[in-house]
Write a structure and sequence with these properties.
Length: about 250
């Protein structure tokens, strides 16, 4: 029998990872959802941070149809995408100390809020210091990372620690060091990264858990509707008016 096509192998690898995360991280995902629900119910705010490609799962839960309206993206200039020129600057900035503290000090984040810190490796200064500084301010920190990197690489932070060492809850994406699921004869480098697929699924699962937890408490989750369905804009306008003091992506 001939070997499966690379595209099919990638789907199989991604599905296997998703099933493993569901099986092994389900309890912690539920715990994270409860933390988010606690913050919503208490009048606190929600933030998500990620640098480089780890910013994609963070952005995926902000101003998103079917998502919580209160999720805000905490951006560090120059690190939130590949549009910065040169694109390699973002990777370099992740290793610079002091940025996280400056960003948090000038942000609306305060004690009692929740911050998701997303970093595949969790080894660079920026995500480590983001978690450390956030907890010092009294925020609850949920880290989404690959625990494999803590044994397969060395920390680049001066403390020698990783993101996972500074979180209230750690959600493990199960991604192997290197973030490439496939190899093939004739191709020298491994390829086909799955971290965005898996990490985005983790984030959406937490949002789903939070919505369910709020409903179980008799609280209507502040969800957004698609602007491309009839009545969507009106619905979203009402939600944004009601929760405007906790939504910062409109200012």
């Amino acid at each position: 029998m001939s070997e499966s096509k690379p595209a099919d192998r990638f789907f199989d690898a991604a599905i296997t990872l998703l099933q493993r995360v569901q099986r092994e991280e389900g309890g912690r995902i539920a715990d994270a959802g409860a933390v988010v629900a606690d913050a919503v119910a208490a009048g606190n705010r929600l933030f998500a941070f990620g640098a480089g490609h780890s910013s994609l799962p963070a952005q995926d839960v902000v101003y998103r149809a079917g998502g919580l309206a209160l999720m805000n993206f905490l951006a560090v200039p120059g690190t939130a995408g590949v549009d910065v020129m040169p694109a390699t600057l973002g990777s370099a900035l992740e290793r610079v100390g002091g940025l996280a503290g400056a960003v948090l000090d000038s942000s609306p984040a305060t004690a009692g809020d929740v911050l998701f810190v997303i970093s595949l490796s969790g080894r660079n200064a920026l995500p480590v210091e983001m978690a450390v500084n956030a907890r010092a301010l009294g925020l609850k920190v949920i880290g989404v990372t690959s625990v494999a990197y803590t044994t397969g690489t060395k920390s680049r932070h001066s403390s020698g620690t990783f993101l996972r060492d500074h979180c209230d809850i750690v959600l493990d994406s199960k991604i192997d060091v290197g973030d490439a699921e496939l190899t093939l004869d004739g191709i020298d480098a491994p390829f086909a990264p799955a971290s965005t697929v898996v990490t985005s699924a983790i984030m959406q699962a937490v949002m789903a858990a939070a919505a369910g937890e709020l409903a179980a408490r008799g609280i209507e989750p502040p969800l957004l509707r698609s602007g491309n369905v009839d009545g969507g804009h009106e619905w979203n306008g009402r939600v944004m008016r009601e929760y405007g003091d906790r939504i910062f992506y409109r200012h």
